[in-house]
Amino acid sequence: MPRRSIPTTLFGRRLRAARSRAGIAQDKLGVIIGMDEGSSSARISRYETGVHEPPFDTAAHLALALHVPVAYFYCDDERLADFLIHYAALGEGQKNQLLSLASELRSAAE
Questions:
Q1: Angle between helices 10-22 and 56-66 in degrees, nearest 10
Q2: What is the pLDDT of residue 5?
Q3: Looking at residue 76, what DSSP letter applies?
Q4: What are phi and psi of 12, to 5 degrees?
Q5: Which fold has domain 10-109?
Q6: In 46-68, which positions are buried (b, 16+ CB within 10 angstroms) versus exposed (e)?
Q7: How much is the pLDDT for 14?
């Protein structure tokens, strides 16, 4: 059984977590976003382990395929990253309600 490398970058950790949560293999994820089938697994692995970081447009394609906002990959606050996952799953009306609630909470704290 091959040894899995531990992601060393924030982007790599977030990518691996999102991919695992979605239940998608590295090679399949690469193909979904338009990578060559022969190199997709290696490229996704390099992104996850921090050997390379993808260009932003590739990160955007990864986010779309994994149903997460692209900001999730770059968020350095764990609670905010979790929030982004939940926020992305909301409908437009719910997002507006949440924004109003956040505004109210901020005003109350001032």
A1: 30
A2: 72
A3: -
A4: -60, -45
A5: 434 Repressor (Amino-terminal Domain) (1.10.260)
A6: bbbbbeebbeeebbebbbebbeb
A7: 97
The residue behind tokens 């692209």 is 70
Distances, alpha carbon 19 to alpha carbons 66, 101, 110, in Å: 6, 31, 39
- Where the chain has pLDDT below 50, the residues are 1
**Amino acid code (one letter) for 52:** H
Distances (CA, A) of 67 to 2, 8, 30, 49: 28, 23, 15, 21
Q: Where are the domains of the chain?
A: 10-109
**What's at 37, amino acid-wise?**
E
pTM of the predicted model as reported, rounded to 2 decimal places: 0.86
Q: Decide: 63 and 27 in contact? Cβ < 8 Å.
A: no
* Whether the Cβ atoms of residue 107 and residue 101 lie closer than 8 Å to each other: no
- CA neighbor of 65 nearest in space, from 30, 95, 17, 13: 30
Q: Cβ-count burial of 81 within 10 angstroms (0-12 exposed, 13-18 middle, 19+ buried)? A: buried
